[in-house]
Amino acid sequence: MLATEELNRIWLTISKDQTLKKNVHHELAQLYQDELYQKWWSSDPRLPFVVAEDPRFPILRSLAFIQNQQLQVKINRIASRLFITDGAWMPTPMRVFPDPDEALVLLKYCERNKLQHWAEWVIDPAAGRRRTRCGFADRLFPTG
Known about the structure:
alpha+beta, about 40% helix
């Protein structure tokens, strides 16, 4: 797993360059959609994803998202948005958000009740990491 300082360095590098940001997103999307990644992701993974020597991800390698053929983060998707988190292979006291389960339950509830069309606030006291709003593509809701 990447240290917080390394993630901050990566973000500072990416945030200064819109082309790089777009290319990182493209590679993350490619990797997320990869059949092997999807099989790994849906298996409740407890070990990092192994990325074979694959020429599709040079930027992820150069930024250290992939080290020694292991993906250092977990790529998640809620609705149309991708985001990266730590994985379940991280020690429990260090782990922040390995799974989007809580957010997905709340999003399904909101969609079923059409809250995204009328509610001014959706408070998510359980997830707490503000990931739920990633799922609302058209309108972001503040979270508790």
